[in-house]
Amino acid sequence: VSGLLLAGVGWGIGRWLARGALAALGGLWVLAVIFPVLNIIPIPGGRAVYFAERFVYLPSVGAALAAGSLGAALLGALEGRRRQLALAAIAAGLVAFGVTTAIRSETWRDNGRLFLVMRERSPHSTLPVTNLALTTLREGRPHEALKIVGEVFGQVPTDGTALAVMGQANLALGRTAEGLAYLAKAVEYHPTNPWLLGVLGAGLIQANRAREAVPYLQRELTVDPLFAPAWMILGVARAQEGEFDEAVRLFRKVRALRPDSPDAPIQIGRILLDQGGPAEALVEFQAALKADPAHPVATWAMAMTLDRLGRGGEARHVWERLPDL
User: In this structure, are residues 70 and 23 in contact, taking their beta carbons and an 8 Å threshold?
Assistant: First the structure.
């Protein structure tokens, strides 16, 4: 099936090239951003990379290029009244698409609104409900998240996302034992789901049970070795256990996977500072601030480190930035 599809794609590209370079560029653009999520070519770690997002849907750029090029060619071949009718049809289409976009933009303005609309349109589907509950939880409303996810949990008690929301919400409310029990049940039903393994690992670390968290995080990384957050949580677990050299090694791996994130340098800097290496720690905090110049934790740590190095004037200058962050 994949071979036939690829052959069809090749034939289509050839046709586009025959019609014009701009049309071909548009077609290739669509393919480039859609191809990674078609599951034709395996992606390491099993996590598809989506080259599109809510507000600027990238495949539409290529579609617009291709349609515009072919439309221009069509108009060039028409004369008189036919050309006028074609222009009127294009104008009507643009107005219709504009109105549709305005309506859809209201639905897609934020996660909460999107999942509410999806729940209304698909009342028998559990996906919008679990996504709405997860969004509500991430917005800091665990009580409300529990009420929402109850709709799914009563129907499908083995749903992994529902169990994860139940677990995380209970942890947020201080019900540690109950929260961890839900997370453990989620992993029991879905033992190879990397996200659930990571959520359970993070929950155990939150409960100061780092040693128990490590096997779950290692299993997560077996499934997806390129998932930086899992390496990050594993590093935190090793640091909690006092294995600081191993923690630093893991944080350096996170930095290699996510060089633009300040999180790993901050963690490395903290360990180096606690171990009596302020000069080395300063380098890490500088790297964190290079990634995010307004990061308050990195700014505070930078000031503390400069002060420890006897560079009080520079430390005061950094301190002065904190009220604005």
Answer: yes
Q: Which of 120, 181, 124, 129 is nearest to 151 (CA)?
A: 129
For 207, half-sphere exposure in the C-beta direction (CA atoms, 13 angstrom radius) is 25
Does residue 56 have a pLDDT over 60?
Answer: no
pLDDT in tens, 176-201: 999 999 999 999 999 989 889 989 99
**What gap in Å lies between CA 116 and CA 130, rounded to an integer?**
11
Q: Taking the model in full, what pTM does it have?
A: 0.63
CA distance 38 to 49: 10
Q: How far is CA 33 from CA 15, 22, 23, 55, 58, in A?
A: 20, 17, 16, 15, 7
Name the token pair of 308. 């420890």
Q: Reduced to 3 states, what is the DSSP secondary structure of residue 47? A: coil
In whole angstroms, give the CA distance from residue 125 to residue 120: 10
**What number is the average pLDDT over the span 274-284?**
92
**155 vs 121: CA distance, rounded Å:** 18
| Tokens read off for 7 | 């052959």
Alpha helices by DSSP H, listed for the chain, are 2-19, 21-34, 58-77, 80-107, 111-121, 127-138, 142-155, 160-172, 176-189, 194-206, 210-223, 228-240, 244-257, 263-274, 278-291, 296-308, 312-319
Contact 148, 115 (CB under 8 A): no
